[in-house]
Design a protein that fits this description.
Ammonium transporter fold; two-stranded antiparallel sheet; globular; mainly alpha
Length: 442
């Protein structure tokens, strides 16, 4: 098939946009941590790029998208085949056979960036206390036995796809998957030293806003690029992405004002991200008015959901569960009501508001539940195994001193140095409290 240069150019740009989201996430997460662990937090995102890229090239693409046999057997519903190990056979002018006219290697690169950021999202829950080496091992294991199979279930012709689950750009595959994994790992990892006693406010809200802006910018490639073509649906996804993010940021600020008496910069950043998360599964299936409602609902609900960790007693450092798991569920389930443009030739249907069957709402609930339970269970087992054989958590003294200096021999800010045995180390200077009153990790 002849290559469509327009669609290919758009997909190359979208791939770069999605990859940019992971450094953007590093800024977003880095600013939300305390000053003594900002570099470690950012490194966890950067190393996710390295680890997942290698795994994707060697076997990830095959497990996610290759058929097993003729693609109709029971095993194909669970996992992909091994036809393109090392991306063999995807080079040169090979193109997808779905009519997009896009080189298969471009499609693979695009999907690889989704796997990268999904792993990086989990790291925000582990801030301040996870061993860096243990994180690398966990990331490799998790992407191999959780992300690749789940991507196959929904996008690679697996069992959820066969049932008609709608997930345009990754609400279930990316956000619910990562949020459930984050919850499992923090239950194994335990609470930070001083949690709910010591102040653990974001140390640099400027970095948070910069990261949120990069995420918002990259999300247009994330969502509109998932159409895999330059057409009206890509335009719809683009517009819905903007509408939902703005509506969610606004509703989060409104909740803060009514509840706390002031609106914060951390709130506007987190609100925008919650809207982007919620619209991700729906962006190509709904009208803009529905995107507005989804975003507004996500901003309001997630603004309350981030506090659930205090009631339930788990230390999700940077609100991965409250934003990504909850926001992803809102967007996925909403499709059972407001989906207007299902994919022709599939088992997908319109939502209830458009006269669609109740069964579509059922599968939109089944998808998040199945992926959430699978991700939680396997992630918990992987975290326990890593903790047993390597040790998942840094020593208490290293955690109190600061994981940047004890793990990486670096600090994010040179606020004063002390020389000991010829090695420059940083003491523990007083860091001004963030201006936000929302204590992310308190």
């Amino acid at each position: 098939m002849e290559i469509d240069s327009g669609s290919t150019a758009w997909m190359l740009a979208s791939t770069a946009l999605v990859l940019l989201m992971t450094p953007g996430l590093a800024f977003f997460y880095g600013g939300m941590t305390r000053a003594k662990s900002v570099l470690n937090m950012m490194m966890m995102s950067w190393v996710s790029i390295i680890v997942v890229t290698m795994a994707w090239v060697l076997y990830g693409h095959s497990l996610a998208f290759d058929p097993v046999g003729d693609g109709t057997g029971p095993l194909h519903k669970i996992i992909g085949g091994l036809d393109h190990l090392g991306l063999s056979g995807l080079v040169d002018t090979a193109t997808k056979t779905d009519g997009t006219g896009m080189p298969s290697l471009v499609f693979s690169a695009f999907q690889m960036t989704f796997a990268v950021i999904t792993v990086a999202l989990i790291s925000g829950a582990l801030a301040d206390r996870a061993r860096f080496g243990a994180w690398v091992v966990f990331a490799l294991a998790w992407v191999s036995v959780v992300y690749f199979p789940v991507a196959h279930w929904v996008w690679g012709g697996g069992w959820l796809s066969g049932l008609g689950v709608e997930d345009f750009a990754g609400g279930t595959v990316v956000h619910i998957n990562a949020g459930a994994a984050a919850l499992a790992v923090v239950l194994v990892l335990g609470k930070r030293a001083g949690w709910r006693k010591d102040p653990m406010r974001p140390h640099n809200l400027t970095l948070v806003l910069l990261g949120a802006g990069l995420l918002w910018f990259g999300w247009f490639g994330f969502n509109a690029g998932s159409e895999l073509a330059v057409d009206g649906t890509a335009g719809l996804a683009f517009m819905n992405t903007q509408v939902a993010a703005a509506a969610a940021a606004g509703s989060w600020l409104l909740v803060e004002k009514l509840r706390d008496g002031h609106s914060t910069t951390l709130g506007v950043a987190s609100g925008a991200v919650s809207g982007l998360v919620a619209i991700t599964p729906a962006c190509g299936f709904v009208d803009p008015w529905a995107a507005f409602l989804i975003g507004a609902l996500a901003g309001a609900v997630c603004s309350y959901a981030v506090s659930w960790k205090y009631r339930l007693g788990f230390d999700d450092s940077l609100d991965v569960v409250g934003v990504h798991l909850v926001g992803g569920v809102i967007g996925a389930v909403a499709l059972g009501f407001v989906a207007a443009y299902p994919v022709a030739g599939t088992a997908q249907s319109q939502g209830l508001f458009y006269g669609g069957p109740l069964s579509q709402l059922g599968v939109q609930i089944l998808g998040p539940v199945a992926v959430g339970l699978y991700s939680f269970a396997v992630s918990w087992g992987l975290a326990k195994a890593v903790d047993r054989f390597i040790g998942l958590r840094v020593p208490h003294d290293d955690e109190v001193t600061g994981i940047d200096i004890t793990t990486h021999a670096e600090t994010g800010y040179d606020l004063g140095t002390v020389h000991a045995a010829g090695v420059s180390t940083v003491g523990r200077p007083a860091v001004p409290a963030a201006q936000s009153t929302r204590k992310v990790g308190t």
